Amino acid sequence: MSEPGKIFILNPRENLLKRVTEEVLSDDKPPHLKTILLPNRRAGVYLKHYMAQTVRSTLLLPRIIPLDDWIVDLYLESTAEPREQINDFDASWIAFEAYNAVCKASGVEPHRWDSFFPWARHMLDALNEFDFELVDPTDVEIDNVPHPLMLRRIKGLYGLFGQILEEKGLITKAKVFRLVAEEPERFLGECVKEMGDEILVVGFYALTESEDRIFRYLFEHGARFYWHAISNPLPRLYRRWKENWGVEPVDISKDCHDSPTRFHFFEAHDLHSEIKELKRRLGEMDSPRAPDEYCIVPLMPTSLIPLLYHLKEVPANVTMGYPLSLTGPYRYLELLFSIMENWREGAFRVRDLEELFLHPYSGLSPLVELLRESLNPFFHREQLFEMAGEIGLKKEMETIFRTALDPIIEARTTADLAEALESIVSFVRSKIKDPSLLDSNPNYSMELVALETIEEELIPLLSNGLFSKITMKKSGLIRFFREISHSCRIALEGEPLHGLQVMGLLETRLINFHTLLFLDTNDSILPGIEDVNPVLPHGIRRWVGLPERGKEELILRYHFERLVNSAKEVHIFWRRQFEGSNRQSQVEPTGLKSRFVERIIWDLEKEAKQPVEDTLIKRSKVVLHASVKDLQHLKKGPEHIEIVRGLMRHISPTGIETYLRCPRRFFYRYVMNIEEKKGDSEIDYGEIGNAVHNALERYYRRLTSKRKEVTKSDLLIEELFNCFLEEIKGKRFYKYISPERRRLLERSAYHRLNNFIKNQPDTTKVIALEKELSHRIYIGGDPALVVVLSGRIDRIDLRDGLYVILDYKTGLVDQPKNISAELIDLEMNEEGLKLLYERFKHIQLPLYAYLFCVTREGAPPWDSITCAYVDLRKSGKEELYHNKRFDFGRWLEEVFPHSLDLIFRHMLEAPYWYPAPDLVSCRFCGYNHGCFGSGAVGS
Q1: 44-54 mean pLDDT
Q2: Is 51 helix (H, G, I), strand (E, B) or coil?
Q3: Residue 69 CB neighbour total at 10 angstroms
């Protein structure tokens, strides 16, 4: 039996690939009889580079191969009739077939491919993980997950998936790994007999169970392993590897007396200031003489094109995956698909046509003004041809239809869609035909590479896939295309090695650089948020036999720290996003520097035994930053207070509510009188709400004109709906929306009004409709600080001696959660605002109830009043503002006036116009693109 192998550890400061080169070339055994397994291809390119530098004569190289390729080769060489390995999309189709068979056997309605495809992808990820982890899944009885049958029958589903693959003569990469791991003697035996101890496994860190079993077999038969890490303490997954194998690695690091890594930190206000500073620093460095001298690591793919544009005079070698969905040709395809999604009965929406005609590929921008002047929201093909003919662009219009729109309109299968893409790619390529542009603008070369990726990867996938002849709905076909294309990456592999390197983090594995420059080291990017498979969420995995997740951040931390520790000089950049940044954005990072970077700074501080952040971190200095900082702490001036006092002489519940939700918004809208930007929707939802309110008032006035008491049997949906139709048809937007949108709007309104009627009380007495009320109060009892409250109540009922104030709501309503009978006091600052907001997310309804009581003739009905929202958006039910057991009347009489006093004092006394206390308030705010508050987006 062979002697067991060894595990060697090398300090990251030493170049592992150079050390492996020395080891391979140092003994008497010919290099070509050795195999070097690597985690990726790029490390192999550098390894060959070092060997070429070391040996200036002819050399038969060792076999240098990524592990994935080696395993597949072993399978093919050791199997008499190997099955064809398929891609993940075809494997998803097999998983879909298996799941539909399980559904049918369980009496569940089978699914459609075009709608179920995203779930098939998640299901395949789970099935693949079973194979990589050598797990035989166990059924789990569960309900509260999407598609629970998937987990209840996961064992049978897994078996059926494998059976269908075998019947069709197909296999997945995961199953190849499982085969090799479970039968190592069959697949690896000949290899280790021939090679002996001449297999070198270099630079692996996190292992699946199948990789672990394969490596353990190699180790037992003499293979040498190389870890690139600091030995004390070892990174966590290396410690786990060491303990599981029961081995003692040998540290082969030389005594490193080099100076420690020099760190430089820069906090930028945006991407361009990041790149500008990076470019300045590169200008201070000597030109790179070797491919391992300088490397830029952009952690966000969106930074690549701006980076290359600014570095266009610097020779750069790019090695990273770039999303196809970020390229110009894909965006053009996305535009065409959006047009088809809104295509109705042969008519095209003007808004979509404008975008298409303005696109540089189309060359039809002169038509845009004609479209706008027509005031027609939709155009048919014949109208467009006629319009284009008037200005001599008919031929160009016909080309767009023939090459782009018509092929998509006619597509019914992915094979049809592939033909459509071929036509569109040919058209787009004809628009990018000036080779002189390629050197001056990286966008052009990227667009050509994107077209090649569509031709070489996407089109064959769509035309030759196992699902290519399956008929789909148009919407499903487009959704399917988006799912597939968003997983496609343009592989940028710069060769030959030269000059400045630009690499993704995972492409840098095993490579050492003298100087590193990291872009976008924000915490939302590094490590970012771990993806969770909805088929196997946390907590379910162990029930089906899989290990819990948790390695992703450890893996990223290892690769980042290994790379940083390998360099002599490291420049780390991140973006300072203001507190108003959209924290959910997938395009822009948050303003927190990565926790990995925080760790570096903390270590430097421990070493220096004093805070070093202010001295180490340089920050971009721009005038914009100063003005934004002023906006974040927008001070109330005396002139503002005077305007607010004037507003208080006739203030509505909406104005008060606006202040509670966001003083900044109140400032823009009421103090500065800046009009709020409206949404882009062609349907005016505010007008729909007005139409509903007006219809209900008209209908109830008609019912109560002779008697106040109304029974549920009096309410007729057809009559109420006709009132709504009369109102909505008078709205301007209604005239311009498509017939389909009108029908959808009307059906929706009918359904919701019918729900409203079903949920009305059996009998009620309506004592007022659209009742206008006002009342004067004094802030702090000071007659000089007068406030006139005013409001219009939708409806007031009297039921069994209880007055019910009703407020119709056609939009979302956040019910208050912290109604308390206790009097509160608070500081006139941001914390005080948050406390008020928590108590009064919606102050309108209790304010109406208060106005009704204090303006009522005789004794106010404090002990016989309640209030409720009427949910016209969904259920049609009345939702009480308060808990039934809560003493609402006493609260309204004693606590509410005190709360009003606090709100108005805050308006006058708080020193700043504070941003919104709740980020959700900013999502639909019309000022968010010019505001730098706590939740502003687009800032």
Answers
A1: 92
A2: helix
A3: 12
Cα–Cα–Cα angle for 867, 872, 874, nearest 5°? 115
pLDDT at position 283 over 50:
yes
Q: What is the pLDDT of residues 632-673, one digit of tens each?
A: 458 888 889 989 988 898 888 889 989 998 999 899 888 888
Q: At 37, give phi and psi (nearest 5°).
A: -95, 130
Cα torsion 413, 416, 418, 419 to 10°: value is: 180
The whole-angstrom separation of Cα 113 and Cα 613 is 54
Contact 517, 568 (CB under 8 A): no
**In this predicted model, what pLDDT tens digit does every residue of 388-444 receive, in sequence order?**
998 899 999 999 999 999 999 999 999 999 999 999 999 998 887 654 444 444 455
Determine contact, residues 765/799, Cβ cutoff 8 Å. Answer: yes
In which residue are the tokens 């729909």 written? Answer: 688
If we measure between CA atoms, which residue out of 59, 74, 76 comes closest to residue 194?
A: 74
ω into residue 527 within 30 of 0, thus cis? yes
State the helix-helix crossing angle for 685-704 and 717-728, rounded to 10 degrees.
130
Among 229, 214, 196, 212, smallest CA distance to 34 is for 196
Contact 816, 868 (CB under 8 A): no
Using only C-alpha atoms, the chain has a radius of gyration, in whole angstroms, of 34
C-alpha angle 742-748-750 in degrees, rounded to nearest 5: 100
The rounded distance, in Å, linking the Cα atoms of 2 and 4 is 6
Cα 817 to Cα 141, 805, 820, 841, distances in angstroms: 35, 20, 9, 9
Question: Domain spans of the chain?
Answer: 6-79+185-251, 87-171, 269-315+512-619, 325-493, 638-931
Written as six digits, the tokens of 189 are: 């035996």
Q: Is the pLDDT of residue 677 over 70?
A: no
Rounded to an integer, what distance in angstroms lies between the CA atom of residue 246 and that of residue 906?
Answer: 67
CA distance 756 to 541: 44
d(CA 154, CA 122): 13
676 burial level (CB within 10 Å; 0-12, 13-18, 19+): exposed
Q: End-to-end alpha-carbon separation of the chain, Å?
A: 67
Chain centre distance of CA 140: 30
**Token duo for residue 474:** 């148009």
- The amino acid occupying position 384 is L
Q: Name the fold adopted by 269-315+512-619.
A: Rossmann fold (3.40.50)
Q: Is the fold of 6-79+185-251 the same as that of 269-315+512-619?
A: yes
Distances (CA, A) of 445 to 278, 308, 328, 585, 616: 23, 11, 11, 28, 38
Closest CA to 129 of 186, 78, 170, 91: 91
Question: What topology is assigned to 6-79+185-251 in CATH?
Answer: Rossmann fold (3.40.50)
Cα-based angle 660, 665, 669 (whole degrees, multiple of 5): 115
